């Protein structure tokens, strides 16, 4: 409890490659609480990797699994730092869940920085094909998707420790 209110989770949102999972782990250490990654939770609950869920069942089912996983994670009693997938914000139901249960922090980064970061990892079904084209298109589609956050941090020129510190200061 804090000020007579139940403690809230910290929910990290942002486009793919903005550092949510890494920041989430380090922020949880900094705040001495647990970290949770919703993508990892989906894989655990569904028993299938994310590209396999997209390929075998389609994006719609992936999104349903994402909402179910997010709801389960945010229902936890103890404070968690929750890293969400880049598209979790697309559903009004998810946005409502995040705002109800958490202090929502958006991480942003310049497109070229995003491209450099995601090019290390081929596990993202929505970025198959021409990577640069896909990133620019999705960034445009999601231009305002992260605007509902309580706090936004542009990570382009910041080290991960600085990002963690800024969030910790905003939360405590
Ligand atoms: C997605 C982002 C991914 C993952 C899935 C869809 C998206 O998570 O949830 O591939 O729609 O932006 P990361 O943001 O952790 O890469």
TrEMBL record:
Pathway: Metabolic intermediate biosynthesis; chorismate biosynthesis; chorismate from D-erythrose 4-phosphate and phosphoenolpyruvate: step 5/7. Its cofactor is Mg(2+). Binds 1 Mg(2+) ion per subunit. Substrate binds at residues 39, 63, 86, 142. It is an enzyme of class 2 (transferase). Its EC number is 2.7.1.71. It comes from Paenibacillus glycinis. Mg(2+) binds at residue 21. It is found in: Cytoplasm. Signal peptide: none annotated. Belongs to the shikimate kinase family. The lineage of its organism: Bacteria, Bacillati, Bacillota, Bacilli, Bacillales. ATP binds at residues 17-22, 124. The gene is aroK. It catalyses: shikimate + ATP = 3-phosphoshikimate + ADP + H(+). InterPro entries: P-loop_NTPase, Shikimate/glucono_kinase, Shikimate_kinase/TSH1, Shikimate_kinase_CS. Keywords: Amino-acid biosynthesis, Aromatic amino acid biosynthesis, ATP-binding, Cytoplasm, Kinase, Magnesium, Metal-binding, Nucleotide-binding, Transferase. This is Shikimate kinase. Monomer. Catalyzes the specific phosphorylation of the 3-hydroxyl group of shikimic acid using ATP as a cosubstrate.
């Amino acid at each position: 409890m804090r000020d007579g209110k139940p403690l809230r989770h910290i929910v990290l949102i942002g486009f793919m490659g903005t550092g949510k999972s890494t920041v989430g782990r380090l922020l949880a250490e900094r705040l001495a609480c647990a970290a949770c990654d919703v993508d990892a939770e989906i894989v655990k609950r569904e028993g299938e990797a994310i590209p396999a869920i997209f390929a075998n069942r389609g994006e719609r089912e992936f999104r349903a699994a994402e909402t179910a996983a997010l709801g389960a994670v945010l229902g936890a009693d103890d404070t968690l730092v929750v890293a969400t997938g880049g598209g979790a914000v697309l559903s009004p139901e998810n946005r409502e869940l995040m705002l109800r249960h958490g202090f929502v922090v958006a991480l942003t980064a310049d497109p070229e920085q995003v491209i450099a970061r995601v090019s290390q990892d081929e596990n993202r079904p929505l970025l198959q094909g021409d990577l640069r084209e896909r990133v620019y298109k999705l960034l445009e589609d999601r231009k305002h998707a992260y605007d509902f956050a309580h706090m936004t941090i542009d990570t382009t020129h910041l080290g991960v420790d600085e990002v963690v510190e800024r969030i910790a200061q905003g939360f405590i």
